Amino acid sequence: MSDWNAHQYLKFEDERSRPARDLLAQVPLQQLRAIADLGCGPGNSTELLLERYPRANVTGVDSSQAMLRQARERLPQCSFIESDISAWMPEEPVDLLFANAVFQWVPDHRQAMLRLAALLPEGGVLAAQMPDNTREPSHVAMETVFGVSGAARVDLPAAESYYDLLKPQCQRVEIWHTIYHHVMDGPEAIVEWFKGSALRPFLAGLDGAEADRLLQEYTAEIARCYPARSDGKVLLRFPRLFVIAVR
């Protein structure tokens, strides 16, 4: 698969950053020495961490060179590391492992979460947020139009499974769902949103003409699934799962 496109991803920076803000608001830590922003992307979540914890040593971790390049330009005062978080190890003790919209891309992500939580000191926090939208019309339409079953992601397991996974080694685990209804200019905007994320595996390997044809079909399907509201806008329903685990 081709590398991420940071510019495409950031077309909806405010909407994509909203879950990171909501996750960070629930982190029960005041004074931190070190933070790792796992799957930091272009640095939008890293910037939020710096704003809340200006004295902490914040390190961004991502496997995408394009995303890291954007993050380094945005936050030259931070350290950014290219690494797969399923194998990444911190170079120093970390008080907060912050993972906004990344674990859903990691094979066997529950075991990755368990491994990372075990690295935390007592009182340290693993804070994670994952899109839980594989059954939404936007994603069902991807498989229908592109004819590739399961090309993006598998469904997340039940929320209770994360509690059973993490509670034996954590003093407190909190889990919740939030459903966002993002106001979008039209079906084309929804397509642009997913071109920066979930559509990437479907578009990989297609030539330009074929990609354009299928994107037109996908846009028509999105227009059918997400009708215009009273002001002509459309609402993108977007469920997300949140986990806070205190070691």
Short description:
With 247 residues, the chain is α/β, with parallel strands linked by helices. The chain has helices at residues 6-9, 13-25, 44-52, 65-74, 109-118, 137-146, 159-166, 187-195, 200-203, 208-225; strands at residues 34-38, 57-62, 79-82, 96-100, 125-131, 172-184, 234-246.
Present the secondary structure layout:
Layout: H1 6-9, H2 13-25, E1 34-38, H3 44-52, E2 57-62, H4 65-74, E3 79-82, E4 96-100, H5 109-118, E5 125-131, H6 137-146, H7 159-166, E6 172-184, H8 187-195, H9 200-203, H10 208-225, E7 234-246
Helix pairs in contact: 2-3, 6-10, 8-10
Descriptive overview:
It contains ten helices and seven strands. The chain has helices spanning 6-9, 13-25, 44-52, 65-74, 109-118, 137-146, 159-166, 187-195, 200-203, 208-225, and strands spanning 34-38, 57-62, 79-82, 96-100, 125-131, 172-184, 234-246. Helix 8 (187-195) crosses helix 10. The protein is globular. The mean pLDDT is 91.
Q: List segments where confidence is low: pLDDT < 50 over at least 5 consecutive residues.
A: none
CATH class bucket of the domain at 6-132 and 153-182 and 237-246: Alpha Beta
Biggest sheet, spatial arrangement of strands: 3-2-1-4-5-7-6
The CATH topology assignment of the domain at 6-132 and 153-182 and 237-246 is Rossmann fold
Order of helices and strands: HHEHEHEEHEHHEHHHE
Q: What is the CA-CA span between the terminal residues?
A: 36 Å
Number of helices: 10
Helix content: 25-40%
Class derived from helix and strand content: alpha/beta
Shape, principal axes of CA atoms = globular
Query: Major β-sheet, in short?
Result: 7 strands, mixed
Strand content: 15-25%
Overall mean pLDDT stands at: 91
CATH superfamily of the domain at 6-132 and 153-182 and 237-246: Vaccinia Virus protein VP39
Q: Count the strands?
A: 7
Give me the CATH architecture of the domain at 6-132 and 153-182 and 237-246, please. 3-Layer(aba) Sandwich
Output the radius of gyration: 18 Å
